[in-house]
């Protein structure tokens, strides 16, 4: 089992420190499957006030992250792991959308991943031109900084590394594992406030349970995210079930 390695460059490392010391992220580090190093960009600023931003040329509103401390922080990250390859990613609303497929790709990454968290209005363009290999976005909206996006990337990628989750199959069975949304889940009690668990799940018939779950997964995707069906991994039987579901839905409209 390999180790997924991240250097997170940020102005606010405290935002990440708490979540990294909880739950699966903490256990993955204890197992040696995840290595995360937080680097405070302010520590690489050139003035005694650790100033990491300045007004933009051209007179726009807002502040821009200065290039000098970012370049030095990246240099320090690379110097800390001599001989390693590096992939530098800027978390940015302008980046490619981060999907399950992107998480799978990063979970297999053998290079050390540098996650650069932007802040303020923008980051100096020379950082993108010289240091950044790719930009990733977790959605079409703007956050106050890239720290929460970095946590999303780390969390989504590490749970796909073998040995991190207790059940090796659970990561694949989750939503998006095969391009579809997940099926409904139930636990005890079998009846709660008049609502009963579907009988098939109590039957012990594993084949019937699998078919029910697959049908419900297809149904959820059809109702909530029909766009996913265009690229999902569908069998001939899946397509037959989808046609049945579409007919049923049309009857109730």
General description of the model:
With 253 residues, this protein is of the alpha/beta class. The protein contains nine helices and ten strands. The chain has two domains: 155 residues, Alpha/beta knot; 77 residues, tRNA(m1g37)methyltransferase, domain 2 (Trp Operon Repressor, Chain A), CATH 1.10.1270. The radius of gyration is 23 Å and the shape is elongated.
Strand order of the largest sheet: 2-1-6-5-8
Cα distance, first to last residue?
Answer: 51 Å
Number of strands: 10
Structural class: alpha/beta
The string of secondary-structure elements, in order, is EHHEEEHEHEEHEHHEEHH
Notable traits:
single chain; 253 residues; alpha/beta; Alpha/beta knot; Trp Operon Repressor, Chain A; 2 domains; five-stranded parallel beta sheet; 9 helices; 37% helix; elongated
Give a short synopsis of this structure:
This protein has 253 residues and is of the alpha/beta class.
SSE arrangement:
Layout: E1 4-10, H1 14-20, H2 23-30, E2 34-40, E3 53-54, E4 64-65, H3 67-79, E5 86-97, H4 100-107, E6 112-117, E7 122-123, H5 125-130, E8 134-137, H6 147-158, H7 170-173, E9 191-192, E10 195-196, H8 206-224, H9 236-251
Parallel strand pairs: 1-2, 1-6, 4-7, 5-6, 5-8
Antiparallel strand pairs: 3-4, 9-10
């Amino acid at each position: 089992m390999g180790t997924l390695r991240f250097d997170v460059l940020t102005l606010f490392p405290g935002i990440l420190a708490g979540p990294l010391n909880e739950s699966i992220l903490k256990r993955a580090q204890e197992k040696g499957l995840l290595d995360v190093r937080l680097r405070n960009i302010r520590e690489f600023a050139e003035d005694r006030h650790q100033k990491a931003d300045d007004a933009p040329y051209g007179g726009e509103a807002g502040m821009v992250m200065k290039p000098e401390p970012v370049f030095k922080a990246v240099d320090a990250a690379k110097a800390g792991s001599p001989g390693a390859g590096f992939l530098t990613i800027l978390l940015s609303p302008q980046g490619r959308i981060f999907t399950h497929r992107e998480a799978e790709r990063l979970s297999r990454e053998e290079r050390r991943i540098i996650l650069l968290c932007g802040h303020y209005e923008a980051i100096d363009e020379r950082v993108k031109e010289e240091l950044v290999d790719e930009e990733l976005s977790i959605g079409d909206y703007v956050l106050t900084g890239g720290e929460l996006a970095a946590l999303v990337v780390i969390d989504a990628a590490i749970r796909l590394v073998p040995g991190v989750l207790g059940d090796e199959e659970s990561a694949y069975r989750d939503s998006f594992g095969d391009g579809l949304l997940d099926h409904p889940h139930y636990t005890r009690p079998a009846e709660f406030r008049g609502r009963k668990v579907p009988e098939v799940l109590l039957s012990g018939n594993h084949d019937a349970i699998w078919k029910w779950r697959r049908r419900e997964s297809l149904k959820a995707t059809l109702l909530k995210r029909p766009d996913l069906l265009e690229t999902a991994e569908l069998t001939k039987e899946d397509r037959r079930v989808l046609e049945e579901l579409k007919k049923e839905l049309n009857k109730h409209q």
